[in-house]
């Protein structure tokens, strides 16, 4: 179980690396609103991935259903945070909503695949 967690932690850097590479590219080719939106989405995706890793680390060794609950509730929390950012933070900081959503959903999709792989690996390990 510990080795799967280490692999999941290493793989969770993948969305950050992908979005950071696009941010670096966007530094030279996006306008300032687009870059700001993509950067905010990247930072938020990284923060939420780290939060998932911390939650799973605390729940390691417990029943698989608890880990599944963390995974699914984490997805809904991520979506709620997305809606709050789109609705509230946009009025405080001017950024491109489209580029924010693209960045955030890239991080969310890759993270969801990693989280489900981790959960499926734990289920197969316990059989």
Uncertain segments of ≥5 residues (pLDDT<50)?
none
Rounded average pLDDT:
84
Q: Note the run of SSEs as H and E.
A: HHHHH
Contiguous helical run count: 5
Determine Rg (CA atoms, Å): 16 Å
| Helix fraction bin | over 70%
Shape: elongated
Which tags fit this structure?
90% helix
Q: What's a concise summary of this model?
A:
This protein is mainly α and 127 residues long. 90% of the residues lie in helices and 0% in strands. It has one domain.
Please, could you describe this protein's structure?
With 127 residues, the chain is mainly alpha-helical. The chain has one domain (2-126). It has five helices and no strands. The two termini are 13 Å apart.
């Amino acid at each position: 179980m510990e080795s799967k967690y280490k692999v999941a932690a290493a793989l969770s850097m993948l969305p950050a690396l992908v979005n950071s590479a696009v941010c670096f590219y966007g530094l030279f080719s996006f306008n300032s609103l687009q870059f700001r939106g993509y950067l905010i989405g990247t930072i938020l995706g990284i923060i939420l991935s780290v939060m998932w890793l911390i939650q799973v680390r605390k729940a390691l060794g417990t029943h698989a259903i608890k880990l599944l609950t963390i995974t699914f509730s984490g997805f809904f929390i991520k979506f709620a945070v997305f809606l709050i950012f789109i609705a509230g933070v946009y009025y405080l900081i001017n950024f491109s909503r489209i580029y924010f959503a693209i960045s955030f959903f890239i991080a969310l999709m890759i993270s969801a695949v990693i989280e489900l792989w981790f959960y499926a690996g734990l289920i197969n390990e316990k059989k």
